[in-house]
């Protein structure tokens, strides 16, 4: 899977986890409303994180990962803040409270960074040459 694919999958999983785990995030009452809310939030998050790319494209040392994580967390918090305003206008998505926004950003960024670090290691050389 490419770096872009892992990033998009991380956003989808992070948004779904935040919506399912956090009591301040309401996705809707009916299954179609939930799906539309998750897809709308994922689409907004993917587009904005593609416009301003923050994150590693492969495995990086822990200090570098921490910097990417902190800056990405701020970006995701701003996106979730936007979703708290935009969500009710485009779907049944409701995000209530600053704590919920920060926790949703933490969950989203953690899943994106986790998946970015699961990439296979580049081959240094081949055996038997």
Features:
129 residues, mainly alpha, two-stranded antiparallel sheet, 4 helices, 3% strand, globular
CA-CA gap between termini? 28 Å
Poorly predicted parts: none
Structural class: mainly alpha
The major β-sheet equals:
2 strands, antiparallel
Kindly report the average pLDDT value. 86
Number of beta strands: 2
SSE string, helices as H and strands as E: HEHHEH
Widest sheet, order of strands: 1-2
What is the number of helices? 4
Nutshell version of this structure?
The protein has 129 residues and is mostly helical. The relative contact order is 0.22. The model has no long low-confidence stretch (mean pLDDT 86).
Give a description of the structure.
The chain is mainly alpha-helical and 129 residues long. It contains 4 helices and 2 strands. A two-stranded antiparallel ribbon has the order 1-2.
């Amino acid at each position: 899977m490419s770096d872009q694919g892992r990033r998009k999958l991380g956003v989808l999983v992070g948004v779904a986890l935040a919506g399912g785990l956090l009591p301040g995030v309401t996705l809707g009452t009916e299954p179609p409303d939930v799906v539309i809310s998750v897809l709308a939030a994922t689409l907004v998050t993917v587009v904005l994180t593609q416009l301003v790319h923050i994150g590693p494209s492969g495995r990086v040392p822990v200090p570098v990962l921490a910097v990417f994580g902190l800056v990405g967390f701020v970006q995701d918090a701003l996106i979730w803040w936007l979703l708290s305003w935009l969500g009710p206008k485009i779907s049944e998505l409701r995000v209530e409270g600053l704590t919920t926004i920060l926790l949703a950003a933490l969950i989203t960024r953690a899943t994106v960074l986790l998946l970015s670090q699961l990439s296979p290691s580049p081959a240094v050389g081949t055996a038997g040459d």
